[in-house]
Amino acid sequence: MKHVPEQLKKLTVGVAAAMALAAFAGASQAAEPPIKIGTFLSTTGPASFLGEPARKTMEMEVARINAAGGLLGRKIEMILYDDGGAADKAASLAKRLIENDNVDILIGASTTATTMATLPLAEKANVPFISNAGAIIIVDPVRKWVFKTPHTDRMAAEKVFADIKARGFKKVALLSEDSAFGKSGREQILAVAPSYGLEIVEDQVYGAKDPDMTVQLTKIRSNASAQALIIWGLGQGPAVASKNYRQLNMKLPTYHSHGVASKDFVAMAGEAAEGMRIPAATAVVADRLSDADPQAPVVKDYQMRYEAKYKEPVSAFGANTFDAMLIFADAVKRAGSLDKAKLREAIEKTHGLVGANGVFNMSERDHNGLSFDSLRLLEVRNGDWVIVN
Question: Last residue of a domain, which of 247, 280, 313?
Answer without folding.
Answer: 280
